[in-house]
Specification:
alpha/beta; 7-stranded mixed sheet; 30% strand
Length: 367
């Protein structure tokens, strides 16, 4: 006789599966050759325009990229927190790598070699067992996205951000780089210039998604960069739980992961963002994550970061109305540098968590 498992227990099982992936299970690399790459040789205006052109983006996005590039050039490498970032080799990073020409919503149509990688990581099984929808990104591009029909019929939108720019340009324009502007820090400006992939989630008013939605990011190349940009909009009175998982092989030369996550929790909404990252020790992990939390809304951050060469995590919530709810911060030991935000050349106000690898989990829940 099968014992009925609650939704909360299912979510806990999913997170345990993500955390229990062993290094041997994800530090492998694949001989996948990209169909297009900007190559190495530094970041220039030409590279930024090349990325926009290959994506066939609207002109407004190309202009935003170029503006972000100018800010990136003018900003210093952050020094707040203490970690040594001198090993980032800006001139030898592959800023864009396209694994395949197709984006599909049918798992059978994903290229076999890429599909096998995600199989090894257990992603298809997680989708079948636990998720309302999923997006899979390989290097610089989303290769697969799927949302259960139940939620499509209720107006939920969940896909990679590149697809959303083309299908919902006005909605993307309203939120892109509003919570995290290009001027925030050098890594935010870098993401604005070369972003690729990431997720776009919109939950309409009053819709409560009772299963998580997940995006899984896989870096495969050596000395490469992954610069996904995620936007989550949970409208008034709605609720959602969004999960991200990340892995990368281990190489001799370092790679760079510089993501942006923007979350918009509208009035009386409930949002939980969970991130479980298993990075190899050749990855600099530099994400900036921020939520705008409106009146009566509840925002919860849950983060587990394992491995990496250096990780600087910067999650924060801007409380934008009365009667706001938040979980109290909780941390597991990881030899962190913890410092409140200060100044404009440092980060804006908000908690920062920066640490070198200790092989232990770091968890943050709160505002």
């Amino acid at each position: 006789m099968e014992v009925e498992v609650s939704k909360e227990e299912q979510i806990e099982r999913l997170l345990e599966e993500l955390k229990s992936i062993k290094g041997a299970d994800w530090e492998f690399s694949d001989p996948v050759k990209p169909v297009y790459s900007t190559g190495r040789g530094g970041l220039t205006r030409k590279v930024v325009e090349e990325i926009s052109e290959i994506k066939k983006e609207p002109d407004w996005m190309r202009r935003l990229r170029l503006k972000a590039f100018e800010i990136f050039q003018s900003k210093p490498v952050p020094t707040w927190g203490g970690p040594d970032l001198s090993g980032i080799d800006w001139d030898n990073i592959e800023y864009y790598s396209k694994p395949d020409d197709r984006k599909v919503n049918n798992w059978d149509e994903v290229p076999e070699q890429i599909k096998e990688t995600f199989r090894k990581l257990g992603i298809p099984e997680m989708e079948q067992k636990y998720l309302a929808g999923s997006v899979a990104q390989y290097d610089s591009e989303g290769v697969y996205h799927h949302l259960k029909k139940t939620w499509e019929e209720k107006g939920v939108v969940f896909m990679d951000l590149d697809s959303a720019v083309k299908k919902y340009p006005d909605l993307v324009k309203d939120y892109f780089c509003k919570a995290v502007p290009f001027t925030d820090n050098k890594f935010a400006a870098l993401n604005g210039a070369v972003w690729s992939g990431g997720s776009f989630l919109y939950v309409p008013k009053g819709v409560h998604i009772d299963l998580p939605l997940q995006t899984y990011f896989r870096m495969n190349g050596e000395s490469t960069g992954q610069f996904e940009h995620t936007i989550v909009i949970v409208d008034e009175g709605a609720s959602a739980h969004y999960i991200e998982g990340c892995t990368a092989p281990r190489y001799e030369r370092n790679s760079l992961h510089s993501a942006i996550v923007e979350i918009y929790a509208k009035k009386y909404s409930k949002v939980r963002y969970t991130s479980v990252q298993n990075w190899s020790k050749s990855v600099y992990n530099m994400p900036t994550k921020r939520a705008w939390v409106d009146e009566g809304a509840q925002m919860e951050w849950v983060g587990g970061s394992l491995g990496s060469k250096v990780t600087m995590i910067y999650p924060s919530s801007y409380l934008r109305g009365p009667v706001l709810k938040h979980a109290q911060p909780q941390h597991l030991p990881c030899r962190p540098w913890h410092r409140e935000g200060h100044g404009r050349e440092g980060p804006p106000p908000g908690p920062i968590h920066q640490f070198e690898d200790s092989g232990q989990e770091h968890k943050h829940r709160g505002r």
